[in-house]
Each structure stands twice: as C-alpha cells, then as structure tokens.
Design goal:
Two copies of one chain form a homodimer.
Chain A: H1 2-5, H2 9-16, H3 24-36, H4 41-49, E1 54-59, H5 65-78, E2 84-89, H6 97-105, E3 110-113, H7 120-129, E4 132-134, E5 145-149, H8 151-165, E6 170-175, H9 177-180, H10 186-200, E7 208-212, H11 218-227, E8 234-237, H12 240-252, E9 261-263, E10 280-282, H13 285-300, E11 308-311, E12 314-316
Parallel strand pairs in A: 1-2, 1-3, 3-4, 4-5, 5-11, 6-7, 6-8, 8-9
Antiparallel strand pairs in A: 10-12
Helix pairs in contact in A: 2-4, 5-13, 8-10, 11-12
C-alpha cells in the first residue's frame, strides 16, 4: 500500500496517525491510495504493517494503586489470548500524546487510553484510524469506545453515607485544578456531585474544596482544612490515595472517625488493611481493565459502532467513618 | 541488510532474537550477511530497522508497589531524553519470554528485564543481540548489565535490628519455593542471610520459614506461624507487601510490636503511613529504576563491556518493631 501511494511507510504511518510534519501533498497521495484500495483507514493501517498482536495501554500516574487494579484486570483478560499488553507510561500532567504516538509507532493493533487531558478531537482522529478505547472520561465519542465507572452514582453513595451518619460540615479533597476543569473526568464528576449534594441539602455554606497538586501535598491540604474556621467533620476524598494521606493527618492528631470521618474512592488493596480500614467506593477497577481489553479486541475484530461500558460502584463501609461527635448547623 | 541476506525482515528479526522456527540454513544466511557487513549483532539489529527510540521494560507483578518505585525512577530518568518507556507486564510466575519477545518484536532499542525466572543463557543470547539490563538478580553476566540492591547488606540490617532489640524467635516470611530456588534472586539472597544469621547466632533451633504463594496467602501463613509451637516474637518479611499482611494479622489479634515485631523490605510509600508505620529496608527503588535506564542508554550508545550497579540499603526504624515482651531461650 505504501508502494501504491508512492511514499514511504513512515509517511503513511504519519498520515494514518495524523502526526505533524506531513505535507498536504503527501497526505492527499496517501489518502488517495487508501481510497483507491477501498480500505477503511483502520484496516489500511494494519494492512500496511500486518497485525503485531499487541495492545497498547497508555496511562498516567503509574504509581497510583487504583491503576494497578485496572492493569491487573487488563492483564488477566488478555492472558488467554494471542495478544501481549504493552504499557506506555505518560509524563504526569501531560496530554499523553507522546506516549500514545510511541504506541502507534510500535505498531500496536489497538490502544487503551487513560489520558484524561487528551483533546477529544485528537482522540477522534486517532480512533478513526485505529481501534481505541478511552478509560478515563465520560465522553460522547463517535469513533472510540468508553469504559468508566459510574462516577455520579459512586460520588452520591459517598455523600449519602456521610450525610446519613449526620455530617454537615463535609469537605472535598481533590487534585489540582487541571484535573477538574475538563468536563467528564472522574475528578470533575465527583466534584460536581459533591457541590450538588451540598447545595441540595442546604449545606452550601459548609462547602470546602481542598486541592493537592500531588498526592504528597494531600497532608498539607488536610491540615489546612482542619485549621480553617468551622473545620469539616468529614472529608470526601476524590480517591483512596488522597484519603489515606488525610487519614495519616487525622491519626497523627489523635482524631477518631467521630472527629473526622474520611471516605475514599477506588477500594485499593490496602484500603482493606486493618490499620487503614478506609470506607470507600469500589468501582471494580479490575472490571474496568477487563472491559477495556474486551471492547478493544472486538474493535480489532472489526466492530466499528461505538460501545460504552459502565461499572456499577458500591459503598464499602469500614472504620474511617462514624457519626460525628457533635454537629453544629 | 535483509536484502543482502536474501531473507525477509521477519527472518532476520527471528535470527537476531534467537526465536524458534528458524531453519539452520536461514540462520547461516542471515549470520553470513551480518558477518559480511561487519556488523556487531546488536548494531545489525538496529541497522536493519532503525532506532525506535523506545526502551522496553519487562516486569512481573505489576501490582507490587515496590515495582512502582522502580518504574517511577525509570520514568523520571527517561523523561528528558528522546526515548519513551514501554512496559510489558509478564504473566505472574512465568519466565517472561513472551513479554520480552513482544518487546523485541516491537523494535525496542533495548530492554530492562525484571524476569527473575528467565534462564541466564537465554538472557545471554538475547543480550548478545541487543542492549539488556537485568534488574532482578545478582548474575555473573557476560553480555548484560546488572542493577540490584545490596540484598546481603539489607537482609543483615533487618536481622541485626531484630537481634539487637533482643529477639531470638525470628521467623522469615517469604514467597513460594520458585522464588527462592534460583540462586541470586533477592528472595533467595534474603532467605540465605536469614538462615546464616540465625545459625551464626546459635538460634538455628528457632528457624521458621513461612511461605505465601501469593501476597493474599500471607495472612494465612502468618496465622500458621503464630499457631505453631514456640511461635516467633518477630518476623523478617521478604518485602513490604508480605510484611503489611503480617501486620494486618497482628493488629487483628491485638498484638503490639513487643508481642510480634515485623520488618519489611522496600520502603514502599504506604510503609511510612502513620497507621502502618512499618520498619523496613529502603533499597532506593527509584535509584534502581534510574540506574537501569542510565546503563541501558549507555549500551544503546555503544558500550559493550558489562557494568554492575548496586544501591546501598538503609534501615528505616518505625513502630512495627520493639523489644520483645519476654524472650525464652
């Protein structure tokens, strides 16, 4: 097919993944060849190079234990197939384009993408050329599949649990602004549900959002919350990583769950450790990983219509939450 | 170069990575071409295909938090370079050949290999054909570099700490037989040091080795130790993952550190959590990852003589260890 177009394989690859540095003339030659040969682009891509029997997995924050659960599920799902999983860790905070490009250049047959910061139109273009499953956002996609937990339901479970225990002064501990400004990301959805619940319940005056740019900052953010006027009696943390840091501060100060209740999100393995005993939302991270691989293999096998899979979260009540010692309205 | 040999690229690739299914005739044609063109094999491999600017990282147990530290270091070291890290998770307990083959097929320019079960001669052949750094064993290699922590020093630090606190009945908690039978792996070295220290100190009669095939089995293994005749007052666990499970059991039974002291290995992030507060050995996992990438890039740049880097471990004393309440000889 590269021969038909009269251009190099590298150029065809660039056009297919819409990389920079492709002249309009080269693009039209390649696209004409794709057209002439009657290939759909994604099929054309594989026709040029043959299947590699690898699935690319782009992810951020490789040290986030919640991602470990997702990866474990993906590894388990792929094990009995002929495919090998290849993970490209992206630089924290970036758009993940470089890691994704590397996976494309390595001829992965399809991509599972976590990149919460990748632009939707960039992903649409990529996905029009090869099978893609997005694992991080509630997008309305045309070309790629979506696998997510039901973050609205999960965040409501967390908030209802704290409110039903009698908490009113509930703070939300989340990551930096950049994680909550893009619509549809789990942090953005969980923050929105927090604000909505607090407002609906007439608790708007108790709204406090603390941010930690890195998990390491979460201790300082928690200390700041506790030092503020009218400090919270409960914290709904965006994930277990943040929640466990908040718990560290609480324990350091000798605060029990009735002084400061903490709810996390993800149910990472150590959340169930007796010393941690963190109340949290389990969104079945393993299933997210399994579904991502399953949908991607379907796409590699030829499916083109969009599918969405959502895992149902459940509340796991442990010792980090209790009735508040005293609650002032 | 494939053209010179009169064989396909795939065949050259197979010969270079010593894959199955290569006829002797094909092998000699390819090797003759390599010879004729005066290439060293590793250079020949890249000459055929050009650099991909990717580094492959094969690892087991993607959910092991100790590996997260190593990966974080590797990601940080590679970030300012033109290279992208690609991780191939291997199926637990396997030799990792499949994951390594996938990285070779994907044209990685070099490999960091954790595979503790891969045969040395298999690795030597691989490393004679492309840059390889082994990260898991104290091998005497001829073609690949070695990066390890000093497991002898680290295990002695752990044992000396427990003995100096007054413990005699010290048990060792480690993984399944397959992890300690191959000479030079960290679990094998740590077990050997444990046995040596116990014997040297005249404590041979207190030797107890408990095994957990998976981290999930560690709770049962700990319970069995505590239910045994003359139960241990201290456990030296092969890694923090196992140590934290042992700590779970101790806390469940209301045992304090003076009832059962526990030392881990790795200093994973949560070992320092106030609720866990695990005494452990820090072997600078981040530095292991950094060194692996650094040495591999040197090899990709042309170095061929073997280098070994060893990180120096240190003891981190926290609340999980104390003087024993009573020690009977």
């Amino acid at each position: 097919m590269a021969r038909t177009a009269g251009v190099s394989r590298a150029a065809v690859s660039k056009v297919i993944r819409d990389a920079y540095g492709v002249s309009p003339e080269m693009r039209s030659r390649v696209e004409a060849a794709i057209e002439r040969l009657g290939y759909r682009p994604s099929v054309a891509a594989r026709a040029i190079r043959g299947p590699s029997f690898t699935i690319g997995f782009e992810l951020h924050e490789i040290e986030n234990p919640a991602l470990n659960r997702i990866l474990s599920g993906a590894v388990a799902e792929i094990a009995p197939t002929d495919y090998q999983l290849i993970v490209a860790p992206a630089v924290a905070g970036g758009e993940g384009h470089r890691a994704i490009d590397a996976l494309v250049d390595l001829r992965a047959d399809g991509l599972v993408v976590v990149a919460p910061h990748a632009a939707s139109d960039w992903l649409e273009k990529l996905a029009s050329r090869m099978p893609v499953v997005l694992l991080s956002r509630h997008d309305r996609s045309e070309n790629y599949d979506i696998v997510t937990g039901d973050d609205v339901a999960g965040a409501r479970l967390a908030m209802h649990h704290l409110i039903s225990l009698g908490h009113h002064r509930i703070a939300h501990l989340t990551r930096g602004e950049e994680t909550t400004t893009r619509e549809g990301t789990p942090p953005a959805v969980r923050l929105e549900v927090y604000l909505d619940e607090m407002t609906q319940r007439g608790l708007a005056r108790h709204i406090k959002v603390a941010r930690a740019a890195t998990p390491g900052d979460a201790r300082r953010a928690t200390s700041d919350l506790l030092a503020s006027a009218n400090p919270p009696s409960a914290i709904f943390a965006m994930n277990d990583d943040l929640a466990m840091e908040a718990l560290h501060v609480a324990q350091e100060r000798g605060l029990s769950a009735s002084d400061l209740s903490i709810v996390g999100y993800d149910n990472v393995r150590l959340a169930g450790h007796r010393a941690i005993s963190l109340t949290t939302i389990d969104q079945s991270g393993d299933d997210l990983g399994r579904w991502a691989v399953r949908l991607l293999l379907e796409r590699i096998d030829g499916r083109t219509q969009v599918k969405r899979e959502t895992t149902q979260p459940s509340l796991i009540v442990r010792n980090s939450t209790d009735h508040p010692r005293s609650e002032q309205h």
